[in-house]
Amino acid sequence: MNTRELLSRFHAVASDPRGQMKKYLEAGERVVLTAPVYTPEELVHAMGLVPMGAWGADMPLEGAKEYFPAFICSVMQSILELGMKGVYDGASAIVIPSLCDSLKCLGQNWKYAVPAIPFIPMTYPQNRWGRVGTGFTRAGYERVIADLERATGAKFDPAGLAESIKVYNAHNAAMRRLDEALAVHAEIGAAQRSDLFKSAFFMKKEEHTAWVEELLAALEGEEPGAPKIKVMTTGILCDSPALLDIFDDLGLHIAADDVAAQSRQYRTDCAETGDPLDALAEKFAAMGCCSVLYDPDKKRPRTVVEQAKARGAKGVVVALTKFCDPEEFDVPFIKRECQAAGLPVALVEIDRQMVNFEQARTLLETFRDVLE
Amino acid sequence: MAEEIKKPRTPPDPSSAKYKLSKIAADAYKDAVAAKARGEKVAWVSSNFPVEIPETMGIATVYPENQAAGIAARGAGARMCEEAETDGYSNDICAYARISLAYAKLKSCPEQDVAMPDVLLCCSNICSCMIKWYENLSRELNVPLIMLDIPFNPDDEVSEAQAAYVKGQFLEAVRRLEEITGKKWSDERFQEVMSNSCRTSRAWLAATAMARYTPSPFNGFDLLNHMAVMVTARGKPEAAEAMETLLKEYQENVETGKSTFRTEEKYRIMFEGIACWPWLRVTSAGLKSRGVNMVTTIYADAFGFDYDSFDGMIRAYCKVPNAINLETARDKRVKLCRDNGVEGLLVHTNRSCKLWSGFMPEMSRQIGAACHIPVVSFDGDQADPRNFSEAQYDTRVQGLTEIMDSRKGGESV
Ligand code: SF4
Ligand code: SF4
After folding, report:
1. Is residue B93 within 8 Å of residue B221, measured between CB atoms?
2. Which contacts (CB < 8 Å, 24+ apart) does range A263-266 have?
3. Is the Cβ pair A71, B92 closer than 8 Å?
4. DSSP state of B25
5. Which residues contact B276 (CB under 8 A, 6 or more apart)?
6. What SS3 string covers chain A?
7. Contact by Cβ (8 Å): A256, A235
8. Cβ atoms within 10 Å, residue B264
């Protein structure tokens, strides 16, 4: 397959998660939904179940309005809406971590709005370091395992987890290499880039890794396209095709991202030695620079600047999911750090019910002019 | 608008609960200023952080949520929120946080000045928003942050793992505070504080439970004011004494048929959510003018910190209102409604508070069904006056009153 064909394969998966889920179900697999931002997918995978990312969808809201007030982010609203509409039918359970206030509410509402799909809470510590923190993370994992066993009948064994950890580490590495390659290959558009990340949530990681490796091999043999204006994106999500088309139209090349649904997922590996559950808890402790993870030294804004500089980005686009308070608290610092480093910032507010992107276009146009 | 006719003020009786409670709240601010002047360290503390820690160690405290409520009640909510928005904070962020972050920058607000902090004590059992707010304060003010993480508990019981996690952090918090302030933890002093805190809590529970009488001996809006002492000072003997006075007054009211709800009590409701501080008078008058008494709120139960051991204390902090699942939260409210003869539920859909409002529609439906009472909600905000509409409030309260009335047989409206 050539690069174009490979990219369209990713696009097909990214744009049809339901179809992908159906395929797994028809093959006799059991699917477990995993809500943002960090869900211990490795546990699900280790038990022979297929983890399927649930990050919501661009859609109007109806039933979810009976549960959530309007000022809860559209990620939570649309996950609930999809559940209520039956789009997730066939899933054996949903694992929802409680890393922000809105996620806590999703779990509570889910029990009543979508009773057919069992809710499994993953309670993470925010003081995640040391014996006290990792001990609690481990207890959270053990609880998820017990609930998964109950919901699916599948069994957990540590050796299986050790194998899954390797699969996930290999995927992390592939995704990091892909991200580096994308920083060079300006001809791959913003929407295509998003497909590469998004599809990972809807595929078994070993399958996704294989596809990514194929793409990397294809790209290696190709001359990168003409350079465009490099920018970095930061936020929870940045997957709206209409928004991403604007990047392409304006010649903005996403050369790096600090997006929760994209690169933030792949920064941290898990040790492949020792007790695998402890290793997984240590992995969570090692994660950081994310708005939903306690950041006592407020490192994230600086990291954004460092990453942008390292990739040669000329400016930073903050894709702010409306009503996402964890991100909103970081925005003033990101702006300040970027300005101090001479990096222009464009703040684009987005949500999953957005139909009119004219304002975003105008804003990004002005931003492009500044960068030029 | 008609001129308000001011009644001549009778000087408050220094032996009254109201006087004592207001004095404790006011003294807390002054004590922190005085401590600062003496060169002692001052802590800014989030509302459900275990008061036992600073109280045992003798550390002067300021509660930014109370400060923000005070600022909002005195009319400066919008000004301070806008100040934070100028700095890039979205107007979607909790208004207490916006006010507090604006104060951290300005270090002055005549509506409620406070001593600036040397250390921040944050506890996440109230919300995760608190973590971000305090992270930012710590960075802006360049002071150390001690964050006690008590996660939202999806289960009915507090697990061993959660208790161990919180206990481990509690001990570490004490260690760091000793280092920062030079003050020492003493087990003996802790026992005293614990016993004060439990004594205060018992009096509070007993006082708020007096609403079971008809008419209720108090106007529920009183609780919103007295709560400040429960939040900040429950470990002090004066607080226990003041709450016992409050209980005595309510008992006397029951005996003499009096009430601080100074009109005929036609309907009894539960109010859900934080008060709309900028619109306190409007929200209170909208009820009172219709003879609606808010006889109870979750605060009645929220400060029932009655425990007899260190472990009991740890578990009590894992069970505060915003840290518990829908079912536990619902059952507490159903009990309050049943115990206090509640006829309707008025829900404040608080734009500031995602956690409190994010599963409230479902929970209030369940409470309504369990107690056979009507449920009505209105949109508001605890501290940003721009998110409240007087007209909507009035219509909703009228609607609630009409349903309650029709259930009584329809003679009163
Ligand atoms: S982190 Fe932000 S976008 Fe994600 S669930 Fe929480 S509020 Fe919504
Ligand atoms: S109002 Fe809600 S969001 Fe704000 S500090 Fe209180 S609990 Fe947290």
Report:
1. no
2. A263/A175, A263/A176, A263/A179, A263/A197, A264/A37, A264/A289, A264/A290, A265/A38, A265/A175, A265/A197, A265/A200, A266/A171, A266/A172, A266/A175, A266/A176, A266/A179
3. yes
4. H
5. B282, B283, B348, B380, B381, B382, B388
6. CCHHHHHHHHHHHHCCHHHHHHHHHHCCCCEEEECCCCCCHHHHHHCCCEEEECCCCCCCCCHHHHCCCCCCCHHHHHHHHHHHHCCCCCCCEEEEECCCHHHHHHHHHHHHHCCCCCEEEECCCCCCCHHHHHHHHHHHHHHHHHHHHHHHCCCCCHHHHHHHHHHHHHHHHHHHHHHHHHHHCCCCCHHHHHHHHHHHHHCCHHHHHHHHHHHHHHHHCCCCCCCCEEEEEEECCCCCHHHHHHHHHCCEEEEEEEECCCHHHHCCCCCCCCCHHHHHHHHHHHCCCCCCCCCCCCCHHHHHHHHHHHCCCCEEEEEEECCCHHHHHHHHHHHHHHHHCCCCEEEEEECCCCCCCHHHHHHHHHHHHHHC
7. no
8. 10
| pTM for this predicted structure | 0.97
Distance A219 CA to ligand 2 centre (A): 49
* Helix, strand or coil, per DSSP, at residue B148: strand
Q: Structure tokens of A256?
A: 């790096």
Interface test with A, best of B91, B100, B350, B359 (most A CBs within 10 A): B359
Rounded to the nearest 5°, which phi and psi values hold at B315? Answer: -65, -35
**Bridge-partner residues for A349, per DSSP?**
A320
Q: What is the pLDDT of residues A51-98, one digit of tens each?
A: 999 999 999 999 999 999 999 999 999 999 999 999 999 999 999 999
CA atoms in the 13 A half-sphere facing the CB of A86: 0
Q: How far is the CA of A55 from the centre of ligand 2 (A)?
A: 25
pLDDT, tens digit, 9 for 90 and up, residues B220-250:
999 988 998 998 999 999 999 999 999 999 9
Chain A residue whose CA is closest to B351: A71
Contacts of A140 in chain B (CB under 8 A): 161
List, in order of start, the domains of chain A with CATH numbers.
23-157 (3.40.50.11890)
Give the residue on B whose Cα is nearest the Cα of A133: B165
> And the tokens for A312?
């040669």
Instruction: ipTM value, please give it.
Output: 0.97
Please name the fold of domain B26-185: Rossmann fold (3.40.50)
Backbone angles phi, psi at B110, to 5 degrees: -55, -25
Contact of A70 with chain B, judged by CB distance below 8 Å, is answered with no
Sequence spans of domains, chain B: 26-185
Element containing residue B188 per DSSP (H, E)? helix B187-208
Answer whether B322's CB lies under 8 Å from B150's CB. no
Q: For residue A17, which amino acid is it?
A: P
